[in-house]
Design brief:
The chain is mostly helical. The chain is built from 20 helices and two strands. Helix 5 (about 90-100) runs parallel beside helix 8 (about 130-150) and helix 7 packs parallel to helix 10. The termini are far apart. About 20% of the residues are buried.
Amino acid sequence: GKKKLVRPLIISKVLLLHDLRVMERKMSPLTPIHMSLLEDLSKMAISGYTEIRVSAQQCLNLCLEDYISSGRKLMPLFIPYLENNSEVTHEQFKGTLYMMLSPIVTTTMIRNWGIMKEVLPILVKADHSEKSTILNLISHLHNTIQRMYDTFSINFEVSDSCLPVAVSLDSAITKAEEEEAILKLKESNTNRYNLYVKIVEELVDIMEAQHDLTQWRFTEITVKLLAMLIRQDVPYPLKGIQLLVNCLTHDAIAIRKVAIFSVTLILQQLKRTHKRVSIDLNALSPVKINDPLHLTPGEREDNKWLCIMNNEVEDELSWDSNIGIVNKTRYGYYCYPRTSKGYSPVSEQPKLNRTIDEMTEAERLIYQVFMDKEFVEKIISFLSLEEHKGKDHFDTQRTQMFKNLFRNYGSCVVEHFKPHLEKLAVDSQESSQRCASEII
């Protein structure tokens, strides 16, 4: 018969075209009259009458999509109704939460450090009601923030090669104006970083003040927000590192999972640069490798040099670049990469087994915690527990955390885990042996 489009395909095509039209449309400027109307709608959006509140919220959401910077202008009107204040009614708080769930308002908040500093601590302490509808709204809002959050830059820089080209576009720019612009850019970078640090430190203070968190879910939300704020481009504040490391032994399993994820990222952030060199596969392998991309999977003569034999010494100082130090376990089993690289000798790498004086303050915090025998014993006891009987699997996140830990600090940290590993390895429980394999 004749070719016909299936109805679901037609619907999908129409939706894509509609989204394209919405993205390409031109937004209207925000005038004082429009701002006055938006303020009136925001007041009706928190009305005590349900029908008025719902209609005003729908109308306000449409207006926010049409007027430039409308979400940023209305944010100061929403914040007072989120505070833990007895004068704020249930309807006002609930209506404000619905407005905060608007995509425009949420996007405006998570892309402005000043607004985040005002809103995030308030949301964490917003325990106005014990009703399930309010608690579900708060959880939904936090999940939306974490899902939509983008790690946008804190520090913006203009390269030396780009600056003369930009100046050449306008010959009227003077040298003084150019220097003033560079100074303003540095000041704005500093201000954004200070706001970032204040957000983390304030969330930590709220977390430590247990009287401010009346429910367990707010504690979990706070830890998730702290994990969300970990970045690669700027160092994480010390107060946040201390709190997240201590949460590894928290009583709640959900918080421990977030802490494992967070500590893994922090350890990766603290990783020092390691020197790498190219490896000649044919020089290391006893058998010539003709086609490194098409090989028979499994143990072969050409990949034996990647395996650690029992007769080889285990001291990392004895490793030499001639044998190829490769830490990628996937190399050589199925095939070899096009360009193989390995680590240089240990003598050319950052020093391991350092003293406390040789560490940075952030490294020192983590080191002191993991050198505490009671802490190690407690974290092992939690990790060896069975979460879901018969359904637990090997957790790669835990393995990555220990890998980053041992890589950053060396064998001095491993010594505290050896007695526990020996006990876990001979234990008949599946969870104990899984915990030992995750650490190893």
